[in-house]
Specification:
Number of strands: 13
Number of domains: 1
Strand order of the largest sheet: 2-1-3-4-13-12-11-8-9
CATH architecture: 3-Layer(aba) Sandwich
Strand content: 35-45%
CATH class: Alpha Beta
């Protein structure tokens, strides 16, 4: 079963592809709406600004195929900005509508620590789900972000981290999941998460 990584011009695709290949996954990188619609599994990576990412997804005709795949039950993984895009709205550089798969919004860190949050931070699993299977305590992920998700439904929060405030770093509900940190840069923790997604 091939994993389709959605290419909408939002960077870091090659490193995500290589990480999946490292755990034995068959991967296709594409911006073709038809291939997105027909994928066995979908990965939505991303770096950059929320509003620009949504603009590109719309301009390339990818929003409807993504939502159709989710409605059909296709396993879906958002990475970094890809997690944030799963939510209803973001305040990053204005007000922007997201994919609206999870209820909630994306907000900027309003803390005394330096923003963006860059570097290693502990990932604490708080709810069981196939994506976080076999993740032992004391694991660290590599983060680079200024904004974080605030779900209105706490049941979607699978793992949290702390950066003066506690924030969700892995979310999921049934077949739709997202990771705030970079699994492709997070060594064994990241590889285990990608391995779990590949096996789903």
């Amino acid at each position: 079963m091939a994993i389709v990584i959605v290419d909408y011009g939002a960077g870091n695709l090659r490193s995500v592809q290589k990480a999946f290949e490292a755990v034995g996954a068959q991967v296709t990188v594409t911006s073709d709406p038809r291939l997105v619609r027909e994928a066995d599994k979908l990965v939505l990576p991303g770096v950059g600004a929320f509003g620009e990412a949504m603009r590109r997804l719309r301009a390339m005709g990818l929003v409807e195929p993504l939502l159709e795949a989710v409605d059909r039950g296709t396993p879906f993984l958002g990475i970094c900005l890809g997690l944030q895009l799963l939510f209803e709205e973001s305040e990053e550089l204005g007000h922007h509508q997201g994919l609206g798969i999870f209820p909630g919004r994306v907000e900027r860190f309003r803390i005394s620590l330096k923003v963006p949050h860059i570097g290693w931070n502990e990932v604490r699993v708080v709810r069981q789900h196939p994506l976080v299977a076999d993740i032992p305590p004391g694991q660290y992920g590599y983060f680079v972000h200024s904004y974080y998700v605030k779900p209105t439904d706490e049941a979607v929060v699978l793992a949290v981290s702390d950066y003066e405030v506690e924030f969700p770093c892995i979310c999921g509900r049934e077949h739709v999941m997202g990771i705030q940190f970079h699994p492709e840069k997070s060594q064994e923790l990241g590889l285990q998460l990608l391995r779990n997604f590949t096996k789903m």
